[in-house]
Protein 1
Amino acid sequence: MSFNQKHLLGIEPLAPSEITTVLDLAEQYVDLNRRDVKHADALAGLTQINMFFENSTRTQASFELAGKRLGADVMNMSMQASSIKKGETLIDTAMTLNAMHPDLLVVRHPHSGAVDLLSQKVNCAVLNAGDGKHEHPTQALLDALTIRRAKGRLHRLNIAICGDIAHSRVARSNILLLGKMENRVRLIGPPTLMPAGIAKFGVEVYEDMREGLQDVDVVMMLRLQRERMDGGFIPSEREYYHRYGLDAAKLSIAKDDAIVMHPGPMNRGVEIDGTLADDINRSVIQDQVEMGVAVRMAAMDLLARNLRTARTEQGVMA
Amino acid sequence: MTATLFTNATLIDPEDGSATLGSLLVKDGVIVAHGPEVAVPKGVHVVECGGHCLAPGIVDLGVKVCEPGERHKESFKTAGLAAAAGGVTTMITRPDTAPAIDSPETLEFVTRRANEAAPVRVLPMAALTKGRDGREMTEIGFLMDAGAVAFTDCDHVLTDTKVMQRALTYARSLGALVITHPQEPTLSKGAAVTSGKFASLRGLPGVSPMAERMGIDRDIALTEMTGARVHFDQITTARALPALERAKRNGLDVTAGTSIHHLTLNELDVADYRTFFKVKPPLRSEDDRMATLDALRHGLIDVLCSMHTPQDEESKRLPYEEAASGAVALQTLLPAALRLHHSGDLTLPQLFRAMALNPADRLGLPQGRLSEGAPADLVLFDPNAPFVMDRFSLLSKSKNTPFDGARMQGRVLGTWVGGARVFDSATKVA
């Protein structure tokens, strides 16, 4: 078992063996979470602070539950309401929190790199719960666990990621993770929603969804933000659904046993057909939510172990 | 009559492209002779140069001193000391202060402050439009009378082409030099880095390098229309070069500059969101850096400058997108430029042609050369002395250099303005 990270800021710094370590431990927590008594003490005595500078219900709830099930003292801070409105800088906020001796800091921020910046100023483990358009590592890990459980492996799969790649941190983390685990990744979407330099990412890019879905094992849909639908990036919601929305007809092009994923929250009838999203034979969207809690438990457990080791070593040194 | 003889110096002559051992004689602040054999008058003060390089002092086109408005970032005194320590003997200052330098009154304030506080020459530029907001042209005539050497709205691109056309036409009638920032601003709006794989991986908003080419294309068309004298502040991309080349070949009165950061760093240096590497325009790809360097070598790009832009810690210790742009560079310009000498890309005379002679010529100044009759603005430096840059050793009030911790070569030993010594590395005093 190997996991030599102080923080979980992104998928980029992780080695494939570290990814496997997180997923293997998460499997154990999936079992725990299905029991009547869902309690372990891996984080007992530790303080976890969730700082969300951007709205989130699902991710914040998932992190909160993960911490509580492992016995941590969890505090949620909604940062939009508080200090930034008063002009406090991110670093000041970090220093203030640091003085309260947290052990795990879960941060979401609207700017790319903000969580990285914050991690340099605190003495605890920092988990990136999404920074701007950069990374969302726990989402990619939970997607990986979902795929591994559904397909029995996490390599040599054809995986299509569809929709607004340009603005998606979920897509970036997934491209990195699935690439590291040696899968073939395809990106499908209109060129206005593709990031620059995409050809150099080691992926295949398709503008035609029907072409891109041929022979894929996994179809990963992305959420299209409302503010991108008004003609700036795509002409209209209905034209988008016609060309890039996933429905039964388009899914039939993929492999017969292809699974459908979505990080949520979904826009039914915009990027995905409602009936298809609820089809328990194809859609693993509810599994993703379940795996999310387990993966976050595993990630926090591993970071807390490293934190304790580091602190013991420091104690010995002192 | 005071006379100083610099002996045993490697004379870097940007005019004839030579670097030869010899002497240089200064009388009453003016260079009177230089070469391998110089007749030495009696009672002359001798500076033994130990074989080190003696070059014309740098004429830095586009320095931001934060007076008026943000003296906590940089004052004329601190900028002047940094300049002297960096071998910069003439600072051509930018008008992008708060408020902008857009009236003869503000310009006079700046000139007075500069003369009181700075040990080097300061020649101010003024804004092209009032408040740099691109609507009404400034009093170009009065500003020239008050000493403005060029007119620019700096990084505020004049988007209204009609206003730009009139300003250029009016400037032409007075023979004023206009400096533009070639950029299509609606395309580059909100961008923090150059678009491409790196920008996408970091999730940062990027601008296509094409925005620079679109900017230069428009400004060249307007130059052709109006016959104005135009200088492009920073050309940093390969795609903008053919347009520049064509404009020069067609006889338009255009020149171009680039910044030391764009010549010695590339977009990957930003690495994990290091905001000291955030400059405007953003750092480019290695291909663009190489093309820009090549253009400077062949004289297509005329001027190499520091684009000295002080920013305090608070404005840099922010998430990358929110952090301010700019880097201080008065003291790092020469050692960074010497990287290009040590790498074999540019000779020392080529470097001083771009850093001293060309900017001086473009502004009609007598300095920037070693020839007889030129003011004795000189820098003596050891191009090989190695050191590790410590940003807190910089004399600028702001310490935002991307070269912090970098291994560099080249130390300024002494700086003279008009024959008077303004910096001595042994005593550190002006």
Note: Residues 210-226 of chain B form the longest helix (17 residues).
Protein 2
Amino acid sequence: MRPDWGSLRLAKLSPTQARFRGCAARPMGGGMLEFSRWLEGTSLSEWIRVTDWIIPFCQSVHIAAVAVVFGSVFMIDLRILGLAGRSQTLRETNRRFAPWFWGGLAVLLATGSVLVIGEPVRSLMTVSFRVKMILIVVGAIIGGAFIAAVQRRQISWGAAQSGSARLIGLLVLLLWITIIVLGRFIAWDPDIFGDLSPYPG
Amino acid sequence: MDIQPMLRSLEQTAFSQWVTLNPFGFRVFETLHVIAVVLVFGSILVVDLRLLGFPSTRQSFREIAGDALRWTWIAFTLAVVTGFVMFTSKPVAYSQNPFFLIKLGLLALAGINMLVFELVLVRTVERWDRDVPTPVSVRLAGTLSLLLWLSVIFAGRWIGFYEPPGPTVDAATLPDVFGGAPF
């Protein structure tokens, strides 16, 4: 079933739709809410919600996968900071941990998608989720560029130990911690972001 | 020993009331708990995988374990402290939540596994520290650790989804302490 966006907009608004009309003034508010409501109405979404183990199961796997991604970033950053794996070159450390970064991200994407399909309004209609997605893209690009540069030996060991490399390492850690925090904030978005939150109620 | 009276008096403390009633009391500690859990599992996974000889035995086990377990302990301490604060918010309810009790049991098993490893298996570390496949007993300890900590995450996540048996309470009639969304 595909949504008929045109007729949705032109149709006479039900009281519920009218109540959400104010969201259209916010960026992505209106269209995203309509999309979320449509997604929520699909049988797949309903099946995820009524099968009561799916959401806690995916959330658990999601947390474990966050740990895998964060753990790999953490170990590589500790190597840059000289706090771990001192017998190893940066390239060796990278080779040990980088595959887990991508594997973990793939699992995060899969379980996260199930969670979004199951509860689209609760997730898509939040500042936390939207900022989190942007930060994940930023984190993945930085991670990918770094891993590729180390494998191609474009980052020498001396350069990786420089003050700026250490600073970037710390910022990347902070980025992933922010992503984790935002993930938790999705559940409390209206209380945390107040009027900024597009959550309809 | 009946600990229920003790739990009830804990629930009456000013701190417990603050954690429950302040809109951000519980949430701050829950968020810190998630960060701590992520770091516990992320760092212990590094050690467990090395115990399994995965992806290679080229790096010394003692070096990897020394580097990573330091953070496991820091994060575990944070997880225990934040976990205890969350527990004080509703001690009676948590003590009757099967998933909470399962989680405590799994933590105890993970602790026993660690003790066996540290007191018995680690004595032979000279023989398998690097460049050789790890012994079966060591791999078993690594596998158990991995599965137990993964189960701890699952049980922990399920604590919040458990609904005690009894008449269903209409959420709309309850005071809106947590802003509607309980999870």
Note: The radius of gyration of chain A is 21 Å.
Protein 3
Amino acid sequence: MELLDRRENVCEMHAESVFNDSSRFMFCIDKLCLCYGNNMIIENVSLNIPKNSVTSIIGPSGCGKTSFLCCLNRLTDLNESCCVTGEVKVGDENVYSSSVNLTEVRRKIGMLFQKPNLFPFSIWRNLELPLKHHGVRDKEVIRLKIQNVLQNVGLWEEVESRLHTPALSLSGGQQQRLCLARTLILEPEVILMDEPCSALDPMSTKKIEELIMELKGNYTIVIVTHNIAQAKRISDHVAFFWNHEGKGVLVEQGTADKIFNYPKHELTAAYVNSGA
Amino acid sequence: MTLSKNSTSYPSIADSVLKWLLVAVGGLSIVIMMLITVFIFTESISAFKIIDIERFFFDERWNPTAGEFYMLPMLVGSLLLMAGSIAIAVPLAVLVAVFNNFYAPKVLSVACRRLVEILAGIPSVVYGLWGLVTLVPMIIMIQSPGTSLLAGIIVLAIMIFPTITILIDSAIRSLPKHYIEASVAIGLKRWSTIISVVLPALRKSIFAGSILGAARAIGETMAVLMVCGNVVQLPDSVFEPMRALTSNIALEMAYAMELHRSSLFVSALLLLCIVFVMMFGKEMILRDKNHV
């Protein structure tokens, strides 16, 4: 208990130092709480996520990391019993405001899931579908965008000759890269990633990590990961969550260097060193 | 997870008993099916020996006792009934299944599912009776005689709609949730998700449901016999009476002798062939993994 009480101080200190310059941040999250029915899953999380960098969300299973990620693009709306309070600001816009254009929010905030979740259509159709729904009709523009995005994720040469074959016939790693391409084709500002490598082999994981490093200059990436070594390799910033009496709480946040080398909280130190 | 034949390292008596029981049951169903087919085929052969096949399509009339075997109107009638009922029932079933899964409050969707299940269990003679006393008089108000191709199509559509709805509804419920998540995450709204992701992802299930519905429609006898008028003719419009292959067998089997009887078995053989072609086609299309 005492250990957890200290997290307030650690997070407040950080929040004070960074709130002064809100233009640096893609997300300003304030007092976020998430409930499923009567069960509180995330309690009172305040966190600022810097632009054009990789922020890793780490913590043990069941501490609300994925639920937190789903709050950022309102994927929580899929669950009718889900209730979110607090504020998630992207720029000046509160994602939970009633006037928000959700289609535009989700275009701006792309998401990559734990397992590849391509539609059971062709590779081409998987990439064409989001474009068409966001108003891109010109066939030549669609063709160019598809080619560019496949080149960006390093898939073009592998699938160039079979764009009209089923996307689900690709390997797991290729499918995950195609999912990333499907996200990137809408030119988002943010990419949320929920353990994107957990179902992949080491080689495919390496490719995804390389892509994350390439993308972080142009996109804000928020990644949930259980793999501390991976978080060390790719993160600029880290937020450490913990399960406190069944609720997910944010224990500590900061730069990757601070969290991994000079953690202020004992729980953070214990957790990051457990993966060393 | 699948259990392979060799997944257990030691033989179990219960496993062997179950295996042979399943082999016996499976084998028996195949044998019964084969026997029925062979029986219908052999019974038809005597007709084929005497009557040229083209006479079934080019004779002047259907009057087997007078040696005329014009079966084409009944074949066309059966196919029209099937196509018409499918054209009405499938879109209706898709709409109801989509409503149940994406729009209806839980209480309403449960009530709707139970209702559809009850509809699926109502005997066809009841649908036929309803058609005769309610639907046919309504059609008479538009055009006489009321008993018509249209009456048959509507009654059949109502009959096969619950079966198709149940199949599509269960296919939607078993659709992986991650398709919906992925669709919402790229900004698609509910209606766009249904039109662009859910229904295309379920096209094979919808197709399979339609074929099963079509097979029931073409095989239906009693309801069709009660509302279609049973005049052997190629209908010029949906308001004209017609006779289906199934009705033909039911109407004439009681007094059919020799060649007439054999020609009725030819009707049955035609029905069997149509169902076989539909099922074979369905398997071929569903098996095509490259079809995207």
Note: Chain B touches chain A through 21 residues (CB under 8 Å).
